[in-house]
Amino acid sequence: MASAKLKFHTQISAPEKPSSGRKVTIVGAGQVGMSIAFCFVNQSITSELALVDVMEDKLKGELMDLQHGLAFVHNVKICSGSDYALSADSKLCIVTAGAELREGESRLDLVQRNTEILKDIIPKLVQHSPDTILLIVSDPVDLLTYVAWKLSGLPKERVIGSGTNVDSARFRFLLSERFKVAPNSIHGWIIGEHGDTSVPVWSGVDVAGVRLRDLNPAAGAESDTENWNDIHKQVVQSAYEIIRLKGHTSWAMAASVATLTTAILKNTRNVHAVSTAVEGIHGVQHPVFLSVPCVLGESGITDIIQQTLTEDERSQFQKSAATLNEVQSNLVF
Amino acid sequence: MAATETKLRKEIQTPVSHSGSKVTIVGAGQVGMVVAFSIITQNIASELTLLGVTEDKLKGEMMDLQHGLSFVSNIRITAGTDYALSAGSKLCILSAGARQREGESRLDLVQRNADIFKGVIPQLVQHSPDTILLVVSNPVDLLTYVAWKLSGLPKERVIGSGTNVDSSRFRFLLSERFNVAPISIHGWIIGEHGDSSVPVWSGVNVAGVRLRDLYPAAGTAADMESWNDIHRQVVQSAYEIIRLKGYTSWAIGLSVSVLAMAILKNTRNVFAVSTFVQGTHGIEHPVFLSVPCVLGENGIIHIIRQTLTEDELDQLQNSAATLNKIQSNLIF
């Protein structure tokens, strides 16, 4: 070690513990994974980050590029590589790895391809971090959260899917364009499948406690002459549309996952629509994962918020569950 | 407007059409988009416009950014190819232009990007006559000069991102040797954002303790501890990252967003940015190079006068001469 350094430091105590207790691992250094990593650095969400993927050169370049920005932010210890030992002692492991949705492909088509990938990833993550929480982002997220749960042996409250958190954000943005108030002043939830059959809970949409349905009882229903349901259609089409226009989605998903990460690491008990085990919820009889509003904290999901759904909303939710269950039963583990 | 929206809100007055802290980013490539995302997640501006040449890509990026807004403070985002969208911008960030290719030096890019600027700069100034221009496109020092010439703006309002990111790389690499946070290590790289940048070793310190006081030869030809390797790594960084991942984005994007923050919020922070340095450090040519500058709402307010060694002064003056030669051959 250079002599200048020795003269400069008087050591008071042993160097830092191997892990900060808030370490996060991101598996998959693609567009979504790296955008999430950048959020963490930019917003000081964690002080310890591991990036794991198979492409060593790309990972190294990404690592250097992130590190070169550290003089502007709070320090983050970042490591990267293809060895899962790097992920040891993670409080949270975020899985973004997997094949991307192709233009025109539905999320359900991806499922077996990504199940194979998870068979390699999940057991290694749990081996190196037995107390971790898993946050699954890879699509189709509801099915893959189920797969991750099965492969991990972890209790269900510690296996979470990013689910409809981002759909709800898209919903709130599109509502904000009509109401001309800020998106985070509009409250609205999309639950169920993160995909074509997601369920907009129109009965709960409100601004400052004033419900849309009190102003227009037909909002979102078949008889709606104001076409509020176009908003839900746009949410469902969003990812396909953005992929068509720019090739992939990244920013909204990263902001969504960063928000979920903050809630977990800081034990905030914020409520977010995330994918969890919903057997017994809203009359669902199958062992599937779907999004409902959940309270998030350091131990994972602590509560599910029980929304009052209309007959139609319940029925849609149950249909999604049945579809997912059918696909699940045909998966090869 | 449908009846329901009007039932919800009682109008008190019309909203403003252009808020005070609007930023335009020209170029929705890797760097421009990281700057955009960072500005949004750091709540730096109230309005953001993305300008570029590809309508579809711009629209897709705009939608993707907008879809994250419920997680952050609201910001109005527009995007397109029409420069009228940029009207009323407090700050215009130029990230458009051809990228360095693997192995290509920044100086090789210059005429290609000067030609692009001829189409961009006058339009920006036309729509936002009071704006500040922040040039990121490479080679940044030359292109900041080009932007200044094309804009007709006073020199304090035409800034190049310069060696802000080089200094950040420098501090990170120093932090690995000193094992303290990068933000706690102070060190400046000035001059050309490129192969001939100048590390000011005399100023490198932690908590006021200078590296040169502990080891006087640090960074000199007599250095037995190889501190100069760090500067070589900084110079090679961009080439290395481009080789590994195809382009650089995170560090430069973040480095530009912190400059935007300082300008929009009038913080008077000091950053190494590219400015007009004729008359500074014995430079005789009308060139732009990076020195530590105080940044505020009206652009560059002060240049911090560092005490440089003979050798550091020589290096800067040589850079200036090289840039001047290239500048004189540019076709405007």
Sketch the topology of chain A as an H/E string, one letter per element. HEHEHEEHEHEHEEEEEHHHEEEH
Count of alpha/pi helices of chain A: 10
Total number of beta strands of chain A: 14
Q: What general outline of chain B do the C-alpha atoms trace? A: globular
Strand residues, percent of chain A: 15-25%
Rg calculated over all Cα atoms of chain A: 21 Å
| Spans of at least 5 consecutive residues with low confidence of chain A | none
Structure summary, number of beta strands of chain B:
14
Q: What kind of oligomer do you see?
A: heterodimer
> Termini distance of chain B?
49 Å
Radius of gyration of chain B: 21 Å
List the helices and strands and how they pair.
The complex is a heterodimer of chains A (333) and B (332).
Chain A lengths: L2 H6 L15 E4 L3 H12 L5 E5 L3 H12 L9 E5 L10 E4 L15 H18 L4 E4 L4 H12 L6 E3 L3 H15 L6 E2 L2 E2 L7 E2 L5 E2 L2 E2 H4 L13 H18 L4 H15 L5 E7 L11 E9 L2 E5 L6 H19 L4
Parallel strand pairs in A: 1-2, 1-4, 2-3, 4-5, 5-6
Antiparallel strand pairs in A: 7-10, 8-9, 10-11, 12-13, 13-14
Chain B lengths: L2 H6 L13 E5 L3 H12 L5 E5 L3 H12 L9 E5 L10 E4 L15 H18 L4 E4 L4 H12 L6 E3 L3 H15 L6 E2 L2 E3 L5 E3 L5 E2 L2 E2 H4 L13 H18 L4 H15 L5 E7 L11 E9 L2 E5 L6 H19 L4
Parallel strand pairs in B: 1-2, 1-4, 2-3, 4-5, 5-6
Antiparallel strand pairs in B: 7-10, 8-9, 10-11, 12-13, 13-14
